[in-house]
């Protein structure tokens, strides 16, 4: 059942690309990297995905002597993440275990619960935690199902031509509204001009909106959370090709009173 859900999610991504209707998703950059087959950066991607684990690993990597290690273990013990050392009952120590992203404690190596972290193996401990998170971020089984769903809608060869950021923008659009871009893709119907006073009032009002308010306006006008970040036409205007919901159309009033 879970595999079917990931497959369906991949289909949704493909439909968003084909229909040019962005999905309002805020996903980690590591997701898009894994989707297009780009390797993750064990430093940058860990920091973006889990700043607490990143800082935790860095503390162990930056220790200079055993005194600092003891102080760090004492700090961790105060947060209930460390246990007492078997050699010295009053001295706290860490074991080769860590919490997964779902909060489950796992062993970082065989019999990890019985292996204390010391000066000799602290770097191995830090590397093991980093590797655990990298495996969780890549989740090959899940991404295989997502790709299968995506491949049922669009050719997977497309992924080899796009960077992770381009893939995200093609699928999710921009998380903010560019008013100048929207102006360039607005059509004024018969009898209206951009210089009309009420049209100028309209754009002035939108310029005072926050991004949150602009997103609500787009939802009202287009029934979409976001709008595509590109359009096939070069300069807007009525004689060039537009991708829906472009161009935005402003019509004259219905009644004779104006």
UniProtKB/TrEMBL annotation:
The record ties this protein, via SUPFAM superfamilies, to: Hect, E3 ligase catalytic domain (SSF56204)
Taxonomy, superkingdom? Eukaryota
Which segments constitute the HECT domain?
Answer: 1-229
Q: Which Gene3D superfamilies match?
A: Hect, E3 ligase catalytic domain (3.30.2410.10), Hect, E3 ligase catalytic domains (3.90.1750.10)
Q: GO biological process annotations for this chain's record?
A: glucose homeostasis
Q: What InterPro entries does this protein's entry cite?
A: HECT_dom, Hect_E3_ubiquitin_ligase, HECTD4
Q: Which Pfam families match?
A: HECT (PF00632)
Q: Keywords on this record? A: Transferase, Ubl conjugation pathway
Q: Which GO terms describe its molecular function?
A: ubiquitin-protein transferase activity
User: What protein name is recorded for this chain?
Assistant: Putative E3 ubiquitin-protein ligase HECTD4
The species is Cathartes aura (Turkey vulture)
């Amino acid at each position: 059942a879970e595999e079917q859900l990931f497959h369906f999610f991949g289909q949704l991504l493909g439909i968003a690309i084909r229909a040019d209707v962005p999905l309002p998703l805020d996903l980690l950059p590591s997701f898009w990297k894994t989707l297009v087959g780009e390797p993750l950066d064990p430093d940058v991607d860990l920091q973006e995905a889990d700043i607490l684990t990143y800082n935790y690993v860095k503390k162990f990597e930056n220790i200079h002597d055993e005194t600092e290690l003891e102080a760090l273990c004492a700090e961790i013990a105060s947060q209930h993440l460390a246990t007492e050392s078997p050699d010295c009952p009053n001295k706290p120590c860490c074991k080769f275990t860590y919490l997964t992203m779902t909060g489950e404690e796992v062993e970082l190596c065989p019999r990890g619960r019985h292996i204390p972290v010391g000066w000799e193996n602290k770097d191995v401990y830090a590397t093991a935690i980093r590797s655990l998170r990298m495996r969780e971020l890549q989740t090959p089984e899940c991404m295989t199902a997502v790709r299968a769903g995506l491949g049922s809608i669009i050719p997977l060869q497309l992924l080899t031509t796009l960077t992770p950021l381009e893939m995200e923008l093609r699928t999710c659009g921009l998380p903010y509204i560019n008013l100048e871009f929207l102006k360039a893709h607005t059509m004024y119907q018969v009898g209206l001009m951009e210089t009309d006073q009420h049209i100028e009032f309209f754009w002035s009002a939108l310029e005072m909106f926050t991004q949150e308010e602009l997103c609500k306006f787009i939802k009202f006008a287009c029934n979409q959370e976001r709008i595509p970040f590109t359009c096939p036409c070069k300069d807007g205007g009525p004689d060039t090709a537009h991708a829906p919901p472009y161009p935005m159309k402003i019509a004259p009033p219905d009644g004779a009173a104006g």
